[in-house]
């Protein structure tokens, strides 16, 4: 029986995860033959951690430590620097600059691209379309991050400033990362408060104060009029913010031109319409990640894409032909040094039981929305213990302890356990991006992954947003304490024969 030829368009975080899941179910490549087309010149990397690269907390070596998935893998043809130009549904082929690639099944994992507003001076029209000015860039790729790093370095040398346009999650993370390097930064956001898609007004105020504490200037409720290279950003009210560089964090749009031009059905938001099997309007074509439109998946989050990748790989390899994707929970963690912020579910509703705790002087805020005694939504700033407990309750759909104030202040743990890894039940989730539990970490430990790095490689824990790094360290320390011989093979007692 010939292997099913699956072509994956997109070698980002979701496309790469799909390939990993296929190889996990079919390590010898007997059932599925993969061809992966990636437009970027190098292998896949974690875009979520680009602000860490910008801040200096990580280097590029952290992003791709083991090389691309195509190396030394049977029946995997990885083609980086290869853009898909045209999809022919009738002939089941993908056209590239190097020729045509036929497929039995096609997986679209094209993700999203940065949306660039038409700001005069920042965006110029050229023969090939539009391009950004030399001192303006979006933040979406490794190449973008390198350019922003160079702009920040130049600004520091001249005593200048960088303007970040957009106060959403990425804008806040980029501004904090630049400030961590000593760069003067101003965030300009046309919304009434920062991160208005995730935060209510009081939480937005607390976040703005926390950001100002780190040295970032914040301009709210004002739009950009034009960018003047060499001078700075002119605001809609006529003011000029002198700046040496402009970083655009103004959102993303799904990258679905290939699907649209081929005639696949799109949703109203412009994503590729998929059902619970991740199939599109063409039964031989599937879509996963930010380019896919499923009613149970929020855009801009990696976890839904990774869960979709696991479901689709299970189906196409035959490991679980009946697998279905039914949606993902929504949890957002801000990755900004010195600012602890987590939001989840639907925190804006005022129906049901709603509790708040406000302590702006200490940059703390909590809002908890309950429905049927379960967590329906939450916003947590400056309360990491409370956030960890509430996320666990949300993930498990567990009843909320009766002492609501203790929950808001982080003094109430999920009902099954006490503090620390020793008291956590095996089903407790340590890494939410990859849904890795304490039990899975312990199994991997005794399977030979007896170090923090090995646990991460074996289970993918702490390879998503990175927010669970401290939790993984704690579990590793606990396992080492429980069985030091396992952690250090040199200490193991000899086997008597």
The whole-number mean of residue pLDDT values reads 88
Please count the beta strands (DSSP E, at least 2 residues each): 29
CATH superfamily of the largest domain: FAD/NAD(P)-binding domain
Characterize the quaternary organization of these chains. Answer: single chain
Structural description of this entry:
- The chain has 497 residues and is an alpha/beta fold.
- The chain folds into four domains: 4-112 and 253-317, FAD/NAD(P)-binding domain (3-Layer(bba) Sandwich); 123-250, FAD/NAD(P)-binding domain (3-Layer(bba) Sandwich), CATH 3.50.50.60; 340-415, FAD/NAD-linked reductase, C-terminal dimerisation domain (Enolase-like, domain 1); 429-486, Arc Repressor Mutant, subunit A (Orthogonal Bundle), CATH 1.10.10.
- Helices cover 27% and strands 25% of the residues.
- The protein contains 13 helices and 29 strands.
- It has a five-stranded parallel beta sheet with strand order 3-2-1-7-21, with helices on one face. A five-stranded parallel beta sheet has the order 11-18-12-13-14. A five-stranded antiparallel beta sheet has the order 23-24-27-26-25, sandwiched between helices.
- Strand 28 (429-431) and strand 29 (436-437) form a beta hairpin.
- Helix 10 packs across helix 11.
- The longest helix has 17 residues, at 142-158.
- The radius of gyration is 24 Å and the shape is globular.
- The two termini are 47 Å apart.
- Mean pLDDT is 88; it is low at 66-71, 414-418 and 490-497.
């Amino acid at each position: 029986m010939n292997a099913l030829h699956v072509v994956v368009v997109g070698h980002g975080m979701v496309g790469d995860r799909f390939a990993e899941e296929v190889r996990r179910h079919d390590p010898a490549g007997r059932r599925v033959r993969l061809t992966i087309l990636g437009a970027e010149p190098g292998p896949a990397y974690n875009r979520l951690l680009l602000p860490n690269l910008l801040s200096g907390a990580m280097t590029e070596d952290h992003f791709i430590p083991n090389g691309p998935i195509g190396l030394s893998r049977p029946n995997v043809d990885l083609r980086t620097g290869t853009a898909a130009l045209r999809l022919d549904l009738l002939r089941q082929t993908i056209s590239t600059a190097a020729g045509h690639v036929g497929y039995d099944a096609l997986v679209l994992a094209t993700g999203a691209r940065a949306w660039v507003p038409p700001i005069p001076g920042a965006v110029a029209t050229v023969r090939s379309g539009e391009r950004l000015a030399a001192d303006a860039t979006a933040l979406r790729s490794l190449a973008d991050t390198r350019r922003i790093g160079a702009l920040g370095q130049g600004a520091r040398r001249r005593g200048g400033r960088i303007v970040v346009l957009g106060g959403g999650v990425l804008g806040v993370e980029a501004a904090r990362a630049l400030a961590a390097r000593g760069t003067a930064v101003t965030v300009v956001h046309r919304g009434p408060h920062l991160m208005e898609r995730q935060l209510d007004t009081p939480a937005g105020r607390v976040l703005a104060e926390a950001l100002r504490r780190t040295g970032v200037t914040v301009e709210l409720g004002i739009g950009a009029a034009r960018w003047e290279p060499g001078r700075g950003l002119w605001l809609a009210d006529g003011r000029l913010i002198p700046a040496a560089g402009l970083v655009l964090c103004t959102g993303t749009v799904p990258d679905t031109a290939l699907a649209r031009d081929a005639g696949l059905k799109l949703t109203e938001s412009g994503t590729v319409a998929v059902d619970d099997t991740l199939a599109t309007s063409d039964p031989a074509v599937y879509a996963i990640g930010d380019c896919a439109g499923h009613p149970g998946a929020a855009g801009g989050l990696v976890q839904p894409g990774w869960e979709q990748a696991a479901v689709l790989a299970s189906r196409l390899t035959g490991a679980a032909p009946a697998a279905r994707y039914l949606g993902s929970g929504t949890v957002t963690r801000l990755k900004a040094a010195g600012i602890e912020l987590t939001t989840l579910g639907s925190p804006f509703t005022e129906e049901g039981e709603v509790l708040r705790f406000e302590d702006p002087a200490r940059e703390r805020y909590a809002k908890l929305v309950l429905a049927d005694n379960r967590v329906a939504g939450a916003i947590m700033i400056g309360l990491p213990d409370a956030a960890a407990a509430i996320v666990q309750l949300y993930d498990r759909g567990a009843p909320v302890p009766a002492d609501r104030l203790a929950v808001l202040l982080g003094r109430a743990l999920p009902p099954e356990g006490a503090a620390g890894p020793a008291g956590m039940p095996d089903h407790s989730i340590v890494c939410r991006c990859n849904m890795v539990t304490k039990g899975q970490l312990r199994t991997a430990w005794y399977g030979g992954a007896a170090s923090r790095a090995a646990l991460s490689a074996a289970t993918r824990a702490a390879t998503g947003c990175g927010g669970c790094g401290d939790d993984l360290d704690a579990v590793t320390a606990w396992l080492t304490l429980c069985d030091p011989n396992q952690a250090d093979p040199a200490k193991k007692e000899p086997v008597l024969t």
